[in-house]
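Field notebook, page 258. I keep forgetting to write these up properly, so this time I am using the form the group agreed on. The chain and the ligand, iron/sulfur cluster, are recorded exactly as supplied. Prediction of the bound pose follows.
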Amino acid sequence: MKKRARAIKAVRRVGASPEGAGARAIAATEPVAPKKKPGKTKRPLAPERVAAIVEALERTYPGAVCALHHRSAWELTVATILSAQCTDARVNLVTPTLFKLYPTPKDMAAASLPELEEVIRTTGFFRNKSKSIQGAARAVVERYGGEVPRTMEELLELPGVARKTANVVLGSWFAIAVGVVVDTHVLRLSRRLELTKKTDPVKVEQDLMRVIPETKWIDYSHMIIQHGRQICLARKPRCADCTLETLCNSGDKTWSSH
Ligand code: SF4
């Protein structure tokens, strides 16, 4: 329990990240706030309700994993930086060429910036992203002997890496749960499911860390992201096809059985 409280506090300390600002900008365009109708859920955070949500997700998305293609912690770090304001599918089209040209952090650290920009151009914000991935490459080479570090504190020191990226790398590659990945899908669905009322990703993460069992922090994000892509769409959620429908009282619902 102490470990969990410490982890939640740590999220608060790094709240003002540029990555968080990006997610907030996306959240502001989502049709999730304020709710059109008050939720009918009497105790939205009741442990049995949260457990039922997680169980339904596990049944629907068994073995859900990160959709970004990667073969190492370094590749996952780069892919996650590139995925800001971009689809995973688009990132997956770019990374094979990128890692063929620059297979190691050392290669990327020595790359020509204009060339790097050209390779990742289609992921958007390519100038900033090029600087971030090259800066991260240099830091990994100079400070960590070419190996991606395994702690939140160290990862947050890398250029372009904020909590979301660090949580993705720690959770998906190292299987270390120190937080919950909050992207646009996790934010939207966690609000619709009334697991949080916040819109700031850092505060949403803290809320989720309080209600979701620590052993489910990594999987929750993977499953919710799948659900957000396939069923609980931003503009028109497919509630009639949703395995969480009986548990959901969102004002955004397009169909309801109850
Ligand atoms: S019932 Fe609709 S709004 Fe609720 S989680 Fe399912 S798809 Fe999303």
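OBSERVATIONS:
- Residues 2-65+181-247 form a domain with the Endonuclease Iii, domain 2 fold (CATH 1.10.1670.10).
- The pocket of iron/sulfur cluster is lined by residues 192, 231-232, 237-239, 242, 244-245, 248, 250, 252-253 (CB under 6 Å).
FOLLOW-UP: compare against the apo run.
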